[in-house]
Automatic annotation (TrEMBL):
Family annotation (CDD domains): PP2Cc
Catalysed transformations (reactions): O-phospho-L-threonyl-[protein] + H2O = L-threonyl-[protein] + phosphate; O-phospho-L-seryl-[protein] + H2O = L-seryl-[protein] + phosphate
Gene designation per UniProt: stp
PANTHER family, per database record: PROTEIN PHOSPHATASE (PTHR47992)
Documented EC number(s): 3.1.3.16
Protein's recorded name: protein-serine/threonine phosphatase
UniProt keyword terms in alphabetical order: Hydrolase, Manganese, Metal-binding, Protein phosphatase
Domain PPM-type phosphatase: 9-249
Length: 260
């Protein structure tokens, strides 16, 4: 079974960027009492430093609830668990914002990946993304809850227009900004050497999907690939914080267990 000291191929990287004075992103890689794997990336928003508060609250509360969770066995149970936890965390952040004037209006995007055996469950709110890399290529498996994506989906603008749209950073759904919120949840199967990328828009606003695919093909290692992604985003301006998690699935040979 996977234990805390055996993170084989999973890395969390974050960078303030070249313009912001502080980092409003948060994230981490965590294990529950059964050694099951969870990764999270959150991108905070709000006046003053409230974005920091929202993203850190989301990550810390998720870590706490995951470490206290029992062993999950099925996609259905995992989807139910993360859906309920998202509701609870949203309520906590929303209440904190209501009770603390300096935090009014704060919120955070969030994307979560839970790996159980040979499947992964993805949950997200906002425009932080999850990409799935397989032998067939790289696919974005989350749908941005953003204004420009809504415009693309309705046919009002093209995907190329969305890249340079002046309101491309307007998020339509965020954790903690409303009393009730829905998260998008889905489960996908995993095969040997599949890779996962979780990231904030500080990366995807600067680096194209094709470039992410090329960097994930590297044989230099996941951590090095992540460093190159951040360096490229900074080379192109680095106006936003940049955070990502890279993970590679490797099935263990003994007793049918797995490593992450």
């Amino acid at each position: 079974m996977n234990k805390r000291g055996e993170i084989m191929k999973a890395h969390f990287l974050t960078d303030r960027g070249l313009v912001r004075t502080h980092n409003e992103d948060s994230g981490g890689i965590f294990y529950n009492t059964s050694g099951q794997f969870l990764a999270v990336i959150a991108d905070g928003m709000g006046g003053h430093q409230a974005g920091d508060v929202a993203s850190q609250m989301a990550t810390s509360l998720l870590e706490e609830k995951w470490e206290q969770s029992g062993k999950l066995h099925t996609p259905e149970a995992t989807e139910t668990w993360i859906s309920n936890v998202m509701i609870e965390i949203n309520a906590s952040i929303f209440q904190h914002a209501q009770e603390n004037e300096e935090c009014h209006g704060m919120g955070t995007t969030i994307v979560v990946a839970i790996v159980i055996g040979d499947f992964m469950t993805i949950a997200h709110i906002g425009d932080s993304r999850c990409y799935f890399y397989t032998e067939e290529g790289l696919k974005q498996v989350t749908e941005d809850h953003s204004l420009v994506n809504a415009l693309v989906q309705s046919g009002q603008i093209s995907k190329d227009d969305a890249i340079s749209h002046p309101r491309k950073n307007v998020v339509l759904r965020a954790l903690g900004t409303e009393e009730e919120i829905d998260s998008d949840v889905k489960t996908l199967g995993l095969e040997e050497d599949d890779k996962l990328l979780l990231c904030t828009d500080g990366l995807t606003d600067k680096v194209l999907d094709e470039e992410l695919f090329e960097l994930m093909q590297t044989t230099d290692g996941l951590y090095e690939a992540g460093e190159k992604m951040i360096a490229l985003a900074n080379e192109r301006g680095g106006e936003d914080n940049i955070s990502l998690i890279l993970f590679q699935y490797t099935a263990a040979e003994e007793e049918g267990e797995w490593l992450c």
